């Protein structure tokens, strides 16, 4: 389960590094499926793909994944808070996907339903560059 509806990305600036490894544990650079609550109604949500971009330790020393949600809705194409990552195995219909940059999700490790795919390094670096330049990530 996702811990919350998301956090402003600049408030969650962390180190970002590409380190995918389809070993059963989610790593930065992997697209995983998990439950994401709706911003306007935390009682509702849907299972969706999320790009893992890092990890965080909370006040109780629990590790959480940091992720950015994906959407295949074409209207995100012209939204500066979204960036295209192209197509991939995470979308069975082969649609172009967009990653939301301004909202970081904190996800419990056991909340990942399945690993979906590895995002190509060149595409991950495009996302990482925007996180560094626009939101203070390192």
Automatic annotation (TrEMBL):
Keywords of the record: Toxin-antitoxin system
Superkingdom: Bacteria
A single MF term (Gene Ontology): DNA binding
Entries under SUPFAM superfamilies matching the protein: Cell growth inhibitor/plasmid maintenance toxic component
Database matches in Pfam families: PemK_toxin
Mitochondrion recorded as keyword: no
InterPro entries associated with the record: PemK-like (IPR003477), Plasmid_toxin/cell-grow_inhib (IPR011067)
Homology family: Belongs to the PemK/MazF family.
Name used for this protein in its record: Growth inhibitor PemK
């Amino acid at each position: 389960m996702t811990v919350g509806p998301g956090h402003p990305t600049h408030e969650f600036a962390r180190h970002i590094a590409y380190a995918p490894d389809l070993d059963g544990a989610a790593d930065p650079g992997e697209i995983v499926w998990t439950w994401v609550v709706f911003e306007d109604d935390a009682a509702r949500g849907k299972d969706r793909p999320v790009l893992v971009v890092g990890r965080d330790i909370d006040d109780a020393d629990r590790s959480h994944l940091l992720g950015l949600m994906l959407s295949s809705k074409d209207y995100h194409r012209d939204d500066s808070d979204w960036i295209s990552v192209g197509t991939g195995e995470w979308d069975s219909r082969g649609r172009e996907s967009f990653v939301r940059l301004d909202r970081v999700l904190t996800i419990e490790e056991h909340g990942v339903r399945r690993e979906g795919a590895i995002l190509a390094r060149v595409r991950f670096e495009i996302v990482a560059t925007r996180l560094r330049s626009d939101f203070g990530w390192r």
